[in-house]
């Protein structure tokens, strides 16, 4: 077996490991981002709810002041009615009192509605605060729990990257560039040939090509999937770890 084949396999195996590490890191970051976004959304909702509650409370206080004022005015109208000297005065005082009573009632109705709205807002705020607390705890727990794993993953990534660098240097430049170019389209850029079939795409390559690669140990590209292909004796195939399953990606 040509040495560059061994290096290619080592490189490909490192790339598979690195991809898995990146996936784990990406998944963790994605989960954290989702949690942080949820907390932000709750913060915004809380701010809006607190503002509307303040408005409701202010309006209600104003209405309550008006109600007190009207109560006094009604008292004054009652005095007027008691002191009326003729029917005209008495009627006028009566009308005034009725109008004031109606205004008084309207305001009390409004206060009642606002009280219900304020209660609703307070419940919503309490719910949001509970949810916010839960999420903050979840984030803190996730950070504490996975920080060790994250450090380990980052360390593993660093080790594999420097190892990859040294392996890549051992591969002829043209071959390495071809490998990298295929890797932009397929996660695993190399494939062994088994019984005349490319293990990457599971399609047979032309028999003449297979004979040539088997006899010379040369490296070529699969006519179907363009992966770098090479012949590997059956004994080595059994001993070597199987390559990653092809998703055709
Ligand atoms: Zn193929």
Q: How would you sum up this structure, described in words?
A:
- The chain is mostly helical and 249 residues long.
- It folds into two domains: 17-167, Helix Hairpins, CATH 1.10.287; 173-239, no CATH class.
- The chain is built from five helices and four strands, in the order αααββαββα.
- A four-stranded mixed β-sheet has the order 2-1-4-3.
- β3 and β4 form a beta hairpin.
- The longest helix is centred in the middle third of the chain and has 83 residues, at 87-169.
- The radius of gyration is 40 Å and the shape is rod-shaped.
- Mean pLDDT is 91; it is low at 239-249.
- Bound molecules: zinc ion.
- Residues 191, 198, 200-201, 203, 222, 224-225, 227 line the site of zinc ion.
What's this, in brief?
By secondary structure, this protein is mostly helical. The protein is built from five helices and four strands. The chain has helices at residues 3-83, 87-169, 173-183, 207-216, 234-239, and strands spanning 190-194, 197-198, 219-221, 228-231.
The major beta sheet can be summarized as: 4 strands, mixed
Rg, Cα atoms, Å: 40 Å
- Average pLDDT works out at 91
Roughly how much helix do the residues carry, as a percent range? over 70%
Record the strand order, biggest sheet. Answer: 2-1-4-3
CATH class of the largest domain: Mainly Alpha
Distance between the termini: 28 Å
Write down the secondary-structure element order.
HHHEEHEEH
Total E-strand runs? 4
């Amino acid at each position: 077996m040509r040495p560059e084949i061994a290096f290619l396999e080592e490189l490909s195996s490192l790339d598979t490991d690195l991809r898995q590490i990146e996936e784990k890191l990406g998944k963790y970051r994605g989960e954290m981002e989702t949690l942080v976004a949820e907390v932000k959304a709750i913060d915004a909702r809380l701010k809006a709810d607190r503002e509307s509650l303040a408005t409701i409370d202010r309006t209600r206080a104003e209405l309550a002041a008006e109600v007190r004022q009207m109560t006094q005015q009604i008292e004054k109208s009652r005095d007027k009615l008691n002191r009326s000297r003729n029917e005209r005065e008495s009627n006028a005082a009566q009308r005034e009192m009725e109008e004031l009573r109606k205004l008084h009632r309207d305001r009390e109705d409004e206060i009642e509605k606002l009280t219900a709205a304020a209660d609703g807002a307070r419940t919503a705020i309490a719910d949001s605060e509970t949810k916010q607390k839960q999420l903050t705890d979840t984030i803190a727990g996730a950070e504490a729990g996975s920080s060790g794993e994250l450090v380990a993953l980052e360390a593993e990534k660093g080790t594999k990257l420097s190892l990859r660098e040294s392996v890549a240097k051992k591969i002829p430049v043209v071959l390495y560039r071809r490998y990298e170019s295929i890797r932009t389209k397929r996660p695993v850029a190399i494939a062994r040939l088994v019984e005349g079939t490319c293990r990457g795409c599971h399609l047979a390559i032309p028999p003449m090509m297979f004979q040539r690669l088997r006899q010379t140990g040369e490296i070529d590209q699969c006519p179907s999937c363009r992966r770098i292909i090479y012949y590997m004796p059956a004994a080595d195939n059994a001993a070597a770890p199987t390559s990653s399953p092809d998703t055709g990606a």
